[in-house]
Amino acid sequence: MNIKQSPPFWNEDIQICLHGSEDSNAYFGSVNPPVILSSLFTYPTFSKLVEAMQDLSCNPVYSRGTNPTVQFLELKLAALERGELCKCFGSGMGAISACLFSLLQSGDHIVFVNNIYGPVINLLQYMKKNNISFSYITEEYSIEIVKAHIQDNTKMIYFESPATMSFNMIHIKELCDYARSKNIITLCDNTYATPLFQKPILLGCDIVAHSLTKYIGGHSDIIAGAIITTKQLFTKIFYEAYLPLGSVLSPLQASLCIRSLRTLPFRLKRHEESAIKIVTTLKEHSKINNIGHPIFMKQFHELGELYSSTGLFSINIDTNNIIVINQFLDNLQFFQKGVSWGGFESLAISPHNNDFIPNNIHKLPLGIIRLSVGLEDVNMLIDDISKSLDMI
Ligand SMILES: *Cc1c(COP(=O)(O)O)cnc(C)c1O
């Protein structure tokens, strides 16, 4: 892969990240949009208020519905994904649960493709109470395997590509074309790639969900989420889940997110270059028997739907001993031990510590370690991993 080459839409996307949806002239020439800390918005007459209340999803009436600062961010994200409308939420899980709660009904079936974000599985406990069943496909993607799991009552196909633990990829266009022919809604969690490196809506996907907490936030200081979708699905999700469930993004957090978007393209390039340098250095290491990084997955070259990789990948250490895994993690000096990813700081974690996820539903090997490469000097990080491997 030639990482010097820019992804398609790169220059347009940089422009959206820097200036999209903003209008300095409307607020004293300020280069940053105002942070509007107000829970409610008043109107000069009652009839004007009533008129605004006709659509709470775009008119500022009450900030659990629409807040102008949050709207600046929503317009930027919708533009980046090339989607119709965006709604921001108080977290990625807030965004995802709103989609599932509003679009699935008793008796429906949902198919999960690829290793999906663990806590989404926990959400299924609520789904079961509402008589919603699911299938979970963790095998390497093929459309035939997906078709074999489709039932008459399948309402939604939910996927991540690449998956943020196994890094398996799927053929998004093929999957979405098939789903559309069956009237099944597709939802893609695009947190790994961000809209800069993959645009699922252009590949036929109905809903894109994001945890803005990761690369888009990028500084490990906000929790936020978003969905981008068509007007029709947006309206249903907004009125049936966003408003009643109330997972709201505060204008302060939205302004931090707008700040972060300005550097997203440049941070992503740095994460990508460092991660590629690390995997190319480590790939022949005798203690590593597999690397889960998009550029090493055959689907990456076959599908070409992901424009570039980011700083998140996994290595599989050749061991069946959890103590060795713990030693490896503890030996690392510059990769801090912590959950989450996508920030400026490098992180390392093993997925085999999570009692919340039933019966290792992800079916991941014991030796797998997920690394989130931060913005530090890459040679220092390579040294850190090499030394830590030498010690086990
Ligand atoms: C973190 C994450 C989420 C959940 O986002 P929160 O902002 O933590 O609620 C969803 N999907 C993926 C892939 C994630 O990494």
How would you describe what is shown here?
The protein is 38% helix and 15% strand. The protein is an alpha/beta fold and 392 residues long. The protein has a seven-stranded mixed sheet with strand order 1-7-6-5-4-2-3, with helices on both faces. A five-stranded mixed sheet has the order 8-9-12-11-10, with helices on one face. The longest helix has 19 residues. The model has no long low-confidence stretch (mean pLDDT 93). The chain binds pyridoxal-5'-phosphate. The site of pyridoxal-5'-phosphate has 13 residues, from helix 4. Pyridoxal-5'-phosphate (PLP) binds next to helix 4.
Task: Write a compact overview of the structure shown.
The chain is of the alpha/beta class and 392 residues long. Helices cover 38% and strands 15% of the residues. The longest helix has 19 residues, at 264-282.
